[in-house]
Amino acid sequence: MILEKDPICFNHNLETVERLQKEVRRGANYKKSLSLLKKSKDIAPHIQTKSGIMLGLGETLDEIKNTIYDLKKIDCDQITIGQYLRPSLNHLSVKKYWDPSEFKYLYHFSKELGFKKVSSGPLVRSSYHAG
Description:
alpha/beta, globular
């Protein structure tokens, strides 16, 4: 099992809010993703857990905040919040470009909830600051 290798961090991205999960991540299951992160924390509480979400796919601020709450409820340690950028015409279109001030708000919101590390900005990616 991965956790037996004692990684510095265990990452599994939600990618988006629960309502958009099926459209954005075909075959994915929001609750199962949360369960995977929770199980990894239960098995190896000393290993940091991390997840990431993209904004701009049609989510609301309340949905984003609920997603962040859901991650905190399962004791996720780190979160990345970035702008979705359409990689090609074959991919989902961008519904909204979030303002940098909105990313700053979500940074402070997440930190106040107790996340140990928060990276939130238009160009933030899940591997942001990875070694």
